[in-house]
Design goal:
heterodimer, A: 106 residues, mainly beta, 7-stranded mixed beta sheet, 0% helix, B: 118 residues, globular
């Protein structure tokens, strides 16, 4: 299963609303997670089951979608959100990740 | 608190072997599945292998037959034995816990760098 993320990068201002999309090459129901990776750090889980916020993750992050099309939305973008975001399917093996979306703060 | 600590990375020549280790703490190790995920320098994330709580194993195609993932529940430790290493295996290798709700990777180690070079 291939995951295609778009855009590959974006630049936005503090307080903006940002949307990242992830398209699967076949239907994966709600078996999708999102991760944030800050520079030089290990990735962190943000969202699983397409829309469930992981414990401790700020509520400005939200996920939606099912089947083949998914979105990660960051409302009220903060400076600490400057990072690369990855989608990841957990539908079957082999697992795959999207190519990543790098978010830059203007 | 949940901790995953990898070790064993380093520089190794092409064709040689290396074993990386991950020691877990802060939770009931034997109840969880785990993954290895790698990231080549400047590149994205790549899932490598998984071992379930009942020791079923799954591998990404490019490492199948070369890498072996195992666990020792008595030591709260995971292993990734990497054989016939190639230059394109160069990456930071992350040990990751499977959250066991819907396959999410809920905790990550800090990673260990494996460099395959002559």
């Amino acid at each position: 299963i291939q995951l295609t993320q778009s855009p590959s990068s974006l630049s936005a201002s503090v307080g903006d609303r940002v949307t990242i999309t992830c398209r699967a090459s076949q239907g994966i129901s709600h078996y999708l997670a999102w991760y944030q990776q800050n520079p030089g750090k290990a990735p962190k889980l943000l969202i699983y089951a397409a829309s469930t916020l992981h414990s401790g993750v700020p509520s400005r992050f939200s996920g939606s979608g099912s089947g083949t099309d998914f979105t990660l939305t960051i409302s009220n973008l903060q400076p600490e959100d400057s990072a690369t975001f990855y989608c990841h399917h957990v539908y079957n093996y082999p697992r795959t990740f999207g190519g990543g979306t790098k978010v830059e703060i203007k | 608190q949940v901790q995953l600590v990898e070790s064993g990375g380093g520089v190794v020549q092409p064709g040689r072997s290396l074993r990386v280790t991950c020691v877990a703490s802060g939770f009931t190790f034997r109840s969880y599945s785990f993954h290895w995920v790698r990231q080549a320098p400047g590149k994205g994330l790549e899932w490598v292998a998984n071992i379930s709580d009942d020791e079923k194993e799954y591998y990404e195609d490019s490492v199948k037959g070369r890498f072996i993932m195992s666990r020792d529940n008595s030591k709260n430790t995971l292993y990734l034995q990497m054989n016939s290493l190639r230059a394109d295996d160069t990456a930071v290798y992350y040990c990751v816990r499977d959250g066991m709700v819907l396959g999410e990777m809920d905790y990550w180690g800090q990673g260990t760098l494996v460099t395959v070079s002559s």
